[in-house]
Structure formats: C-alpha cells, structure tokens
Amino acid sequence: MKSFTAGKNDHGVRLSRFVQNVTQNLPNSLLYKSFRNKRIKVNGKKAAADTRLQEGDLIELYINDEFFPARSSTVKPCSVKKVPLPQIIWEDEQLVFLYKPTHRLCHSDRTGDLSLVEQLHYYLYQKGEYLPNGENTFSPAVCNRLDRGTEGLVIAAKTYSALRDMNEIIRNDWVRKEYLTITCGIPPKGRHTAWLKHHEKNNKVEVSATQKEGFKEIITDVAIEEVQLPLALCRIGLVTGRTHQIRAHLAFLNAPVLGDIKYGSKKMNERYGLRTQELCAVKLTFGEIPSSNSLSYLSGKCIELQSPAILQKFEAVCRSV
Fold this sequence. Notes:
The protein is α+β, with helices and mostly antiparallel strands.
C-alpha cells in the first residue's frame, strides 16, 4: 500500500488522474478495477474515479508495488538543473509571463537543448516557490506553445489551478494573441478565412480556399504597420490558433514570412541571408473571463512586449539591401 497527502497543487485534481500520475504502466482496466474493489480510498473511505481532491486529503492506494516508480532508500536533497534565468515580463502568485527567444524550445526534447520549462523551474526553485520533492504530481508548466523559431510571450502557470483555468481561457478564446512579422511582399489587409490540414508525416500544413474533408477553418487578421518594398512589417491577430497558421496562411496570401524555410520564399531568404522566421508574439489581451474561473481578474488585462527586437530587425534588413 502507498499513501499520499494531497498538497496545494493537487486541490481540484480528479482522483483517477492523480493515481495515473503517481503510478507507472498501470493499465486502465486495472485502475478502474481497483476503484470497483475499494482498493483506492480517500480519507479512509471508498472513492469514485471522478472525485475531486481537496488539499490535505489522504489518498491510500492498495495497488501492487510494481506499478509505482522505484524510489531510492536514501533521501537526496532536492535539486533542479541550474540554467540561465528566463526574462520575466509580468508575474503574480499564479502566473508568470516569459519571453522566449528565437531557437529556444518551450519543452525539452530528444536534442537535449535548453528549454523554457527548465528555465521556469530553476527560476521558481531559486525563489522558493517550487520544491519538486514537496509535490506529488504537479510541476509548473507553460500554457501556450511557440514554434522553436518564433520568439515572444509565453504564459506559464505556477499552480495546478492556474494551469487548469488558463487552459480553459485559451480553449475558449478568451485571450487574443497578436504577432509582429516581416513579410515578403504586402499581404491584403483585413480578416482572412481559409481551411488548413496538418500532415504529421512531414509536420507541414496545407491551406485551401474552400472547405474540404479533414481541413479545419482558420481565421487570421492582418494589419500593415509599415512598408519598405519588397518587405512589410505586419501585425497579425489570431482568431483561431492552428499549427503553423500564421506562416502558412501568409504564404497562401502570397506574402510569406521572411526567413521561413518551410513555407517561405527561398529567393528572398537567400537575398537577406535569413533561415529563421521573422515572427514575434508581442501582445496578449484578455477578454471577459467568467467569475467561475480563478483567473477572472485578468479580464481586460493586456500583456505586451515593449520595444520588441523585431522592430529593429525590420529596419536593419531594409537597410541591408
């Protein structure tokens, strides 16, 4: 039998998810059989899979030891990988808004390159706000993802409730995301609708002017900030947020993002010597968030990068030719 005490970041977590997080290789069939056979208890009583945990609850799991991660008998001091600290744009007790540089990963991958999540963990560990050994299942996480080659604002949650409720905000489009980009040519301004399909095999998307089977609607707002032919500095508003939407939609509008090697203009990229898309997430504006959401205090709030580097980059590339 293994027992756990629900912490602050386990409050509100569904019991079945908690069990899945603290076990490994536990089949769903055995998980739900354990619920039926009263082998999963909360505060000494039988509990259902959809029970929402409260801070301080005692969770007892009468499940074979083979389904729990092996733990050393020696208690080691808590350690978090020491990495460069991230750039903080705005922060409170629940959230932190970070700047992600170009080429920085949001999450770790097989390359082993530094990720924004690693920087977030180290930052909060240094502040004493994140102690991994004191958590059952939760670790601070980023809520929105930017492509490796895209820079700009990323939202991170310090607590489970903030992660859950920010995911609800993003899922329901209660936050508007704006980007600045440099385009090859001048795209038509206004709101544009098309349909997009993601091909996972080559991680590339296809855009269609008409609705087709397997395609999802995309809506993109385009405003022209400045023109210095053959380039334009544009502000992009995402109404929908699909994979590679901005890059693919602008290419479909015959004004690809400068430096984009997947959807862009090879000729223009070579002309300016660029191989990374000139795209920056610069602004997040929160709409009306229901009071039932713990982050409703963000209603009407705007988080924006001040003097983003892409403005200077636009001037520099325009002078370079």
